[in-house]
Amino acid sequence: MTNHQENTSLPAILCLTDACDRPETELFIGLKRAGFDVDVMCNPKGRNYQRLVDEGMVAQPMALESRFDKAGIAAIREQLAKKNYEIIHAYNPRALACGIKASKGTDIRIVAYRGVIGNISFLNPESWITFLHPRVSKIVCVADAIKDYLASLTFLWMRIPDSKLQRIYKGHDLDWYQAEPADLSEFGVQEGDFVVCCTGRNSPRKGFDVLVNAVGDLPKDVEVHLLLVGDVDKNDAIKELVANSPRSERIHFTGYRNDAPAIAAASDVFVLPSTEREGLPRAVIESMAYGVTPVVTGVGGMPELVEDGVSGLVVEPKSSAALARAIESLYRDRGLLAELGQAARNRIANAFHTSQTVLETGELYKSLTGRK
Hints:
Helix content is 36%, strand content 18%. With 372 residues, the protein is of the alpha/beta class. Strand 11, helix 8 and strand 12 form a beta-alpha-beta unit.
């Protein structure tokens, strides 16, 4: 495989992913429209798969079962033989491991994507077949917090060179968020009620317990409904905590919902009380796009997303008292609530727009391949 293409042409890129989300899908399409020769191998069960097919961008359908998926590696190798690709951009660890294996013996540049903090170590053999593999040219970090975390990893003389790390925010567009706010009456919420929403997976680090305690700690005259969206309804410890809360009748489990963004859009405040390891949480971005005021903890990339006192509130993690104060302040000052909500929406429109992601990703590809 040779990279001696005309320097005026843009490089050919093979993107490897799974069921790509909307920002990823629109990034691929945006790069193609910017003149890059982009092909995608992805899971045909993804909800955005047909959009990529319609754009003529799916090279092959692919659903990797593991980091050692023989059929997947063979399919990637077969695709690489069809075109003079200069870059593989892998969007998850499975795709990264299989892409590295499939391109063995070539001089293709490998670009990795990292959206979360943690789970990479010089002492972990799996890290050496993915992010620490010497053939990885760049790791695109979705937040500065992730970039800083990777830069801090050391063992003996080993570290990841700063030149390998680049922060590119995952871009969005307000036009993607047009859902009508959900009808919350099924949860006993009436017109004019103050609603706090929290969406997340059933994971201890999401801090649901801290939020439930915070709502229980609110003064009696602060009357809020709390909607817990997601599979946390399967967590017996959280259910018991809610049952014992002085506000138990106002705390509602919705279960997993396909319309989670519409539920957030119908709320006054969106809270993500994570205790550790966040990147740029999609649920927070979606709520901000709908103009809902976010309250987040100072964990991971969330303070990059939400500017404290400007486009939302940032509180210390693991503190139900701090969370309760933030919710109370927004309940009592509806002018501040509206101001922060509008600023949150503007922040997504301006600082996290998909066009910027396309521009920065394209510049990365050009710099890796010696284009001007």
